[in-house]
Amino acid sequence: MKRPFLLALLGASLAGCAGNSPQLQHNHTYVVEWIGERPLIDYSHLTVTFDDAGRAYGSGGCNHWFAPYALDGEKLTFGGVGSTRKACAPALMEQEQRFFKALQTVQRWDISPIEQVRFWPAEGQPLRLWPEDS
Q: Model confidence over 79-130: pLDDT tens digits?
């Protein structure tokens, strides 16, 4: 990926007016890079998109997923995750289940020093995401 371009894009899209705090973008896709302490399996593609009506959705690497979400400043929570029921390789299925479980424990979000989006659970390491290339 083109990290400098992504960093500039993320900075521009999240900065807004001076004095405003960064915001997650609706109708924009974020690509998951890490789930907690583990990176994704090579070439698996996990995504998160937030719509304007309080629904998040994306790819779990095997299945399409969806869940309600609530966003209030830095607070971010996801409701129960639903998904399609396609079967994939066992390693992809295990990663997808870890992703779905991790989403349901998210309590807040922030931007890291390298301008990566992070979804923080009550305990442990965050989900780490980048905005998808347009």
A: 999 999 999 999 999 999 999 999 999 999 999 999 899 999 989 999 999 9
CA–CA separation, 98 vs 93, rounded Å? 9
Give the pTM. Answer: 0.81
Residue 116's CB is within 10 A of a number of other CB atoms, namely 20
Domains by residue range for the chain, with CATH: 3-131 (2.40.128.270)
Q: What share of the chain is helix, strand, coil (3-state, %, to 5)?
A: 20, 40, 40
Distance, CA of 14 to CA of 33 (rounded, Å): 19
User: Among 112, 106, 113, which Cα is nearest to 35's?
Assistant: 106
The answer to whether the CB of 100 falls within 8 A of the CB of 86 is no
